[in-house]
Amino acid sequence: MRNIFGWVLLVVVGFFCSISAMAQNIDNFSQNVEREKSNRQSILDDSTKLVYDASTIQYTTLKDVKFDQKRWYSIDTTLQRVRLWGTREANDYLVQNLGNPGTAVRPIYFVMPDQIGKNSGFQNYDLYFNDHNSIKYYDTKSPVTSIDLVLGSQTRSILDVGFTRNVNPRWNVGLKFTHYSIDKILDRAGKNDFNVLNYQLQFFTNYTSQNNKYKALFNFTRFDHKVFEQGGIINEDSLFYLNEQAPVYLTQAQSQDMRFNYHLYHQYELANGFTAYHEADILSQTNTFSDDDWTVDSLFIKYKYPPIFDERMTNELSRFNSVSNEVGLKGNWKNWYVLAYFRRRDTFFETKYISGLQSRGENYLGGYMRLDLDSLSNVELKAEFNQFGDHILYGKYTHKLFDVSYNRTQFAVPYLYEDYLSNHHSWSNNFRANQADQIKGAIKLSLWNNNLRLKPHFTFTNVFDFVYLDENGNPQQSGAPAQMISPGFDLKLRFFKYLNFETSIIYSVVTGGSRDIFRIPDLYTNTRFYFANNIFGGKINFQGGLDLHYTSEYYAYDYDPTTQQFILQNNQLVENFPVLDAYISFTISTLTAYIKATNILQSQGEGYFVTPYYTGPKTGIDIGFRWYFFD
């Protein structure tokens, strides 16, 4: 594995060097001399030497280009979230995982799907996969290299290395490499006893023609995510679970999610304000689960998921492929923006023990409209349908003082939940499509010269015909609707100039005939208290403070590693433990660094569970830094 990692780094570094050398030799390719002179002049210092920093790099996204938002963003050099590297804290504790970064993860609150067509059903590693909607497309005035490194307690680390540069003022290329190396927090034999290994490589490029009529965005992502499954603690009532040597169900098992994704978006302006576009996407996903010796992990098959046809070992394999092509027309007229499109999407799914290929061809018609009332207010409408009745109807009104939206969605049942045969599960189902309605609203208040910001918000979700996995890990469909009502508020307060207090609180109630299948906590809180200031004559940007999270106890979903799915359970309450972190962070020039003491309340008390039979991280010290190089 180390040899593979070394070769990958060698290839990445070699590519960076070759791109940089090539770009240096083809600077004369640019025909826009006046623009280049203007750009260079704007970044000259008093000694007429070129100065590059964070202000000379900006990025946009596919969504901004496709929907003509014409937005460019500065790279993040702030201290606000740099220390939030773990899966749960990076997502404001709004997700459930298995305790460790890189493990299977799901949202705590119901999320309306963007994709209404067929998918594989293997979605619990989606959060770690950088799909085309999350790719950043840059415009730089110099080559830019970024390094993000986290050295977490208990030998857990994450490395992000990125490189981007403009070949000329209209063409940018870049690479990003991500590596997770996460040791176990339970039943750990020692250093390099891995729980998660992840390698992800991205290539991205964007191009604009000289007359600005043609634009193209392309990216490729290779994602290899391997998890050494543990199955949870065998005896959760024992004090032994406080120790990292706590016995677990699985010691020989591993899961893998491998993906390849190609995405192209390009457009051509036919006339002033009238543009045609084409968008193509190819995704290949392979999921495996294996345990080569059930005699060692015998308690798992005895008490959890007995084997159906092989008592010695399990080797499961599923493959999913999708090919999508979308063509559309879009136009701007004054403060109106309108888009209409047709999309063809073909999906294919196969498993090891079912002969034949499952497939479905989907034809979509859709449209989007936006009316910009002013710089802070707009109206958005979206509709999408396919021939199977799946659809999205979405509307949102945004005002400087409030937001309100409505989303009505019918979405297809994943392949996994329909026909599946493995060594531990077997089913064949013919379910109706899932359906959901969601209303969201928020009021945005700003007082005391923006030193007090209050945002009360409300979410109402109605779900029916929902397909879920029961206590045995088998798919079922709800026979009655369920309603989730979640009022809450966000508060940000600055006082004494440098002190800041921020908190988010959500209270939730679930009602309806199918309320038991939606497991969300009654109370969620996430709070920060910190000091922030520029010190030493403004040369150092400093921030230090406390992060506190608390979720009330609830019967969270259990996890079935054989299918990589979260399932219902009624045996163990989780959470109900305040997680308190203390940190200091600072920025000097292009270097940002931090040190964080995690879960400091546990050092003198018991641990806690984030998922049934899976504990949260223990007390430890995390160190991290982010460094930009602008040459």
UniProtKB/TrEMBL annotation:
Residues 1-23 form the signal peptide. Keywords: Signal. The keyword Signal applies. It comes from the Bacteria. InterPro entries: Porin_10. This is Porin.
